[in-house]
Specification:
Number of strands: 4
Length: 108
Amino acid sequence: MGQGGFPDPIGDGAMWARQTKNGVEYFSGTLSFSPSPGVPQIKVQFVVFANSQKQSERAPDWRIIVNTCGPAPERPAGGGRGFQPRQAPQPGPGDAGVGSQDNEDVPF
């Protein structure tokens, strides 16, 4: 059992409090989880709004709208984002690449 008597988690996520241009408060968030062992992680992006059309006490207080869902990007071992070096642009025809300059006026 996990925290508070709940089952062990299969993933995690986060939510941020936001406000629309019209002043409506809502949450936006992401969830990453694996539906079963050995299955690649799934990442879900969503928003949560208060249910403004609640007509009974049994109606939900919040509405969840899923924006995107798909495979989570793979992370390097250790959980960090890892270093991804950028490849230097290659000089094209007519470009003055390294070593193509006239160095006769260099004093050494």
